[in-house]
Amino acid sequence: MPVQINPVLTRLRPYPFLKLNEAKKAALARGLKLIDFSVGDPHERTDPAIREALIESVEERSRYPMSEGLPEHREAIAGWIRSRYGVTLDPHREVVPTLGSKEAIFSLAQVAIDPASDRNLVVVTEPGYPIPERGAEMVGARVLRLPLLEANGFLPDLDSVPDGEWDRIAIFWINYPNNPTAAVAPLPLLNELAERASRHGFLLASDEAYSEIYFGEPTASALQVRDRSQVAVFNTQSKRSSMTGYRAGFAAGPPELIAALKLYRPLNGTAVPEFIQRASMEAWGREDHVEAMRAVYAEKRALFMDFFRRQGVRIAGSEATFYLWCQVPDAASSEAFANRLLEQGVVVAPGSFFGDAGEGYFRLALVPTIEDCRRAIEILESVL
273-305 pLDDT, tens per residue? Predict the structure, then answer.
């Protein structure tokens, strides 16, 4: 008799990037050299001071870390939030460190949804990061996908939510600066969502992983809204400090939510090791490496924006993040277009991988080195 498996897990659509990984493996096996712009994993080095803080914090005796995090780590996070956004949080009641942001985003539905309640709807946006939707599906919640359309600046059309559904929403997810469209949300939209969250009793959950990658004015945070009583924000140092492998991030929100997360997190073993926390404290306390990182991405962005304009490839989104969201320049599907580039050694992500609303676009992650970016442009000169 086969082992019983949760049917929700077996019904989930395969993660599309697994398919792309197989195509990359096949290309490498054929001897093709790839320049990979498909995944948002920075190639830039982690600042030496952060690495040194990590090494110096590894003790001879290993011990279990506290799931709620070191008090001084929570204080460092709250200090960065105050410095960056002018918002004062109680570090011991409104902040908890997380293993990056992905695990906390996935598990939020387990903490913030009552399975016995009629309030069981999770709103997500597409094209977008699939983890909020999959976390909702795993607890049996209903999911409503709001398309992010270019005609609306890749912002959600709140009027498209049926009137009868607002009081059934448990969690409304947003992600700005946005992956994959590179759009930025204005503070008035964040305020409107926060006010609706307060009025209808749902949690506004804001994934702000790309908050520090911008090319003009600093981006707004949902922490800056007038009423934060129903707002949770998730952020990470993966992009800000090129620390993807460290898995260092935080959740910030109302005390009752943070208290619930502190109850939940010991159950699934998501405590952040102390040496990671101390490296994270070093990173939150400094901005010089972040400013240098933005300058590097700005240089890469300028290279591709100039190239795509010369080639007639329309850039639909480029305001923030290290992504360019571009229109497929021919009648092919986004996946067929990406496969054509892959055969030449340049890997991009098809827009369809981020949901039906992403068809017709492709995403280019500006993570390879400057040298590889220039080499990729030379290859694409003869392809586009």
Answer: 999 999 999 999 999 999 999 999 999 999 999
Contact 122, 171 (CB under 8 A): yes
* Helices marked H in the chain: 7-11, 16-29, 48-56, 71-85, 102-112, 131-138, 187-200, 237-240, 255-268, 274-284, 288-311, 334-342, 370-381
> The whole model's pTM is what?
0.95
Q: What burial class does residue 202 get, using C-beta atoms within 10 Å of its C-beta: 0-12 exposed, 13-18 middle, 19+ buried?
A: buried
205 and 116 share one domain:
yes
**What's the full length of the chain, in residues?**
384
Q: In terms of residue numbers, what domain contains 253?
A: 60-284
Instruction: Specify whether 84 is located in the same domain as 65.
Output: yes
Of 107, 169, 173, nearest to 146 by C-alpha is 173
Token pair in block for residue 25: 């493996």
Residue numbers of the chain with a pLDDT score lower than 50: none
Task: Say how many C-beta atoms besides its own lie within 10 A of residue 13's C-beta.
Answer: 9
Looking at the structure of the chain, the number of domains it has is 2
Angle formed by the axes of helices 274-284 and 48-56, nearest 10°:
150
CA–CA separation, 172 vs 338, rounded Å?
31
Q: What is the pLDDT of residue 320?
A: 96
- Residue by residue, DSSP assigns 219-241 as PP-GGGSS--TTEEEEEEHHHHT
Which amino acid makes up residue 167? Answer: D
Tell me the CATH number at 111: 3.40.640.10
